[in-house]
Amino acid sequence: MKKLVVSGLILFLTISIVTAKNKTIIRNLTLDKAIEIALKENSQVKIALLDVNKSQSKLMEAYSSLFPSISGEGTYIRNIKKPVFFLPDFFGGTGKITPIEVGSKNSYVGAIKFGVPIFLGQIYTGIVMSHLGIELSNLNYEESLAQIRLNTTKAFFDVLLTKESMNFIKETYENAQRNLDNASKLHDAGLISDFELLSAQVEVEKIKPNLLQAEYTYQTALNFLKALLNLSVEDSIEVSGSIETFFKLRTLPVIDQNLIDNTFTMKKLYLQKQITEKNIMMQKWEYFPSLTAFGNYQVQTQAENYNFNEYRWVKSASVGLSLTITIFNGFGTRSRVEQAKIQSKQLDETINYTKKQLDIGIQNARNKMETSLEKIESQKLNKVKARRNYQIAELRYSEGLSTQLEVSNANINLLSAELSYLQAIYEYLVAQAELEFYSNKSIN
C-alpha cells in the first residue's frame, strides 16, 4: 500500500513538472510584441496564407490545359463467342444471309493517345481568372494581417482597460475599508451612532460584488487576447504599460476622398467584379468553335492460343484535327451567360451598398475620436476634482465634521471619474485603430 502511494505521488509530481514545463509564460507583454506574435501564430493568418498557396495551385492547373495530354491504354478481350458479320448470297440468288465469324478468341490492343488544344477560348479566360484569383487571395491575406493587427490592438486595450478598472475598484474597496476602520474607532469612542457604523459596513459589502465582476471581466479579456496569440487558457501573460501611455493628443485626421476605394473591402469587391466579367466571357466561349489536334499510336494482335512468341503484332498510327461547334444544347449556354450577367449586376449593387456602409463606418470612427477627445479633457479635470473632494470628505469625517454618506458619495464619485476618464481614452484609441484599419495603415 505504501509503495502504491509513493508511486502515485511520483507520478503526480512528474505530471505537474511536465505541465509546468509546457506552460507558456510571457512577462512584460507590449502591444508591438503582442501584434508580432499574433501575426505569426494566429490560425486565421495561417489559413489565409494556405489560401494563397491554393490559388497558385489553381493557376498551375489552368496553365496545364495548354499542355498536351498523353494517355496510355491496354485492352485484352476474350471472345467466348466470336463476333460475326453477315454475308448475303450475291450470286446464288437465294436471298440468304450467312453469318461469318471474324477475329480470334484472344484479342490484345495497346495504344498511346495525345491531344493538344489549338484554339479553346475557355482556357485563356480561365488563366486570366486564375491570375485574378491569386490577387484576391493575396488581398485576403493582407486583410487578415490587418484585421488580426486591429483585433489584437483592441484586445490589448481591453486588457489594459479592465486591469486598470479593476485596480481602481480595488482602490475604492480599500478606501471603503479604511473608512470602516475609522468609523469603528469613532464608534468605540462614542463619537458616531450605530447607524453610521452600519452604513460604513454596508458600503464595504456593496463594493465587493463590483470587485469580483471586475476581476472576472479582466480574466475574460486576458483569455481573449490569449486566443488571438494562439495560446491556451492555462498559459500566463502579463501586459505592460497603461492605457493612458498610448494616448497622444493630436489633431483629428483628414479623411481622404479616395479612402473608401482604397479599403481592403472595396479592393476585394473590385477584383471580384473583374472575375465576374471574365466569367461572362467564359460562358460565351461555348458559342464559338474549338479546335484540337490529336494523335494515336496503336499495336494489336489476335490469336487462338497463348503462345505469345508466335503472335504477330500489327502497328498503326494516325494524327488529325477535331473541330467542335455547338449547334444546339437546349439553351444551356444562354442560361449560363444570363446567370453570369445577373451575378455581375448583384455585385454592382453590393459595391454601391458597401460604399455607403464604409462611408458611415469611417465617419463614425472619426466622430467617435472627436467626441472622445472632448470627454478626455472633461474627465481629466473631473477626476482631479473628485480625488481632492474624497480626500477632503475623508478628513472631515475623521474629525467628526461630516457623515458617512458624504464619504461614500465622494468615494463613488472618485471611482466614476477615474473609470470615465479611462473609458474615454479607450474609446479614442479603438476609434483611431479602426480608422487606421480603413486607411491600411500599420498601428504603432
What is the gist of this entry?
The protein is an alpha+beta fold and 444 residues long. It is built from 8 helices and 8 strands. The chain folds into 2 domains: 26-65 and 120-289 and 329-438, Outer membrane efflux proteins (OEP) (Up-down Bundle); 68-118 and 291-324.
Describe the structure.
The structure is a single chain. This protein has 444 residues and is an alpha+beta fold. The chain contains eight helices and eight strands. The chain has two domains: 26-65 and 120-289 and 329-438, Outer membrane efflux proteins (OEP), CATH 1.20.1600.10; 68-118 and 291-324. The chain is 63% helix and 15% strand. It has a four-stranded antiparallel sheet, with no helix packed on it. A hairpin with an 8-residue loop joins strand 3 and strand 4. Helix 4 (121-188) runs antiparallel to helix 6. The radius of gyration is 40 Å and the shape is elongated. The model is unreliable at 1-20 (pLDDT under 50).
